[in-house]
Amino acid sequence: MDSALDRDGTPQQVLELVAAVRGADTALGLLQATQALAAAAHPGGAACLVEILGFNNPGAAVAAVDGLIAIGEPAVETILANIDGYNYGARAWAVRALAGIGDVRGLDVLEDALGKDIGPSVRRAAARGLGQLRLTDLPEEQRHLIALRCLQALVDGCRDGEWVVRYAVVVGLESLAARLPTASAQPREQLLEALRGLRHDPSEEAPVVQLRAALALERLGGLHG
């Protein structure tokens, strides 16, 4: 990458990639420019990638989400500061990016998305994200509090009306199990009970949800509880 920097420390090559995005005058051109900017995975491109989430170009939005996830934690503040409550599409893509990054600063957005978002695909992404937040570097008390918040959101998500979301909730619960506090058996038992409920729900319309819940229970040693 070009070593020339602007006054903010952004490499000249990244500035040129941003300029290419802003100068794109076709849908294909925007997609290609976004893919190039995303591939750079530089924090200096995060603001532009977030802008792209609000464009009416799903292909470019997917590429922008991939780029934001590749940038990781340095992109989180930019995403949170620019979530557009009036642009549903942009907010939906932002949820996907935050879920993929797994930074705890996205917790409020993920909780809200799983509980309230109108799009099943967004709720699905939020469920997976809640199960995979990166908690390792946090103080123990904070880590446990966040894990319990994630647990409650996922337990509530077991009642979601869409099977794809319930499936993602199972995946989220299984991932979350290793992050729960161990001083008390209650959180783990609550998680296992939620999985058992999904496994044995007679009204479940999608057998794949029951099968995935059974697999999670087998892996967690709670199949026969």
Written account of the structure:
- The protein has 225 residues and is an all-alpha fold.
- The chain folds into two domains: 1-101, no CATH class; 103-225.
- Helices cover 67% and strands 0% of the residues.
- It contains twelve helices and no strands.
- Helix 3 (46-52) packs antiparallel against helix 4 (58-71), helix 9 (140-157) runs antiparallel to helix 10 and helix 11 (186-200) packs antiparallel against helix 12.
- The radius of gyration is 20 Å and the shape is elongated.
- The N and C termini lie far apart (55 Å).
Averaged pLDDT:
93
Mass-distribution shape: elongated
> How far apart lie the N and C ends?
55 Å
* Helix residue percentage: 55-70%
Derived from helix and strand composition plus strand pairing, the structural class reads: mainly alpha
Query: Helices and strands, in N-to-C order?
Result: HHHHHHHHHHHH
Can you tag this structure with a few keywords?
225 residues, mainly alpha, 2 domains, 12 helices
Helices, strands, pairings?
Layout: H1 12-23, H2 27-40, H3 46-52, H4 58-71, H5 76-81, H6 88-101, H7 107-116, H8 120-131, H9 140-157, H10 163-176, H11 186-200, H12 207-220
Helix pairs in contact: 1-2, 2-4, 3-4, 4-6, 6-8, 7-8, 7-9, 8-10, 9-10, 10-12, 11-12
